[in-house]
Amino acid sequence: MPGVIALDAMGSDRAPKPEIEGAIQAARRFGIPVALVGSEETLRAEMSRHPFSRSLPISIIHASEVITMDDKAVQAVRAKRDSSMRVGLRLVREGRAAAFISAGNTGAAMATAKMVLGGLPSVDRPALVAIMPTSIGTVSTLLDVGANVDCKPHNLEQFAMMGEIYFRSMFNVARPRVSAKKREREMN
Length: 188
Fold this sequence. Notes:
Layout: E1 5-8, H1 17-30, E2 34-38, H2 40-47, E3 58-62, H3 73-79, H4 84-93, E4 99-101, H5 106-117, E5 129-133, E6 139-143, H6 153-171
C-alpha cells in the first residue's frame, strides 16, 4: 500500500470541497491513504456529504489556522504556526506522511517547506517543477515555474542538476537532456 499523502484541505479558493472530492477519488481508485489537514469541524461537515467515504482510507488531522492567498508568505509562515500547511509538512518530517500537497499560496508553501523540512546543503533555493507533454508523445520537465523571481547563474545551475536527477528518477532515463533557452530580446 502506498504511503499516506497529507493534503492541505484548506488551500484552494473553494476549499475544502475540491480537496475532499480529490481525496475520495484517490482513495477509491488507487487505494491511496489521505490525511486531510485543516479545521476538523469544517472537514467533518464536508465529509458528511459523502457517507460512503467512511470506508475509505481517509483521516482528518486538525489544524486551527489557514494561510490564505492574500497572506504575505514569510509573515504567514512565522505567525501561523498551526496552519494546515505547517501541520501537513510536519507529518512528512515526522515520517507520518510520504508527501504533502497544497493548492494554496505557493510562496507560503515553499517557505513553509524550507522551514519545516529544511533544504539540501548544496541547494540555495528550491524550484517548482512542471511536467509537460511534448509533440512527439514523451514528457519534458520545466524547473522553476514561478517560485523564484531573482535567480543568479549558480541557482540556474542547481535547478539544472535537480531537474536532471528528478527526470532520471521519475522517468527512468539514464541521461536526460538538459538545456536552457535564452530569451531573445527584440532590437528596436
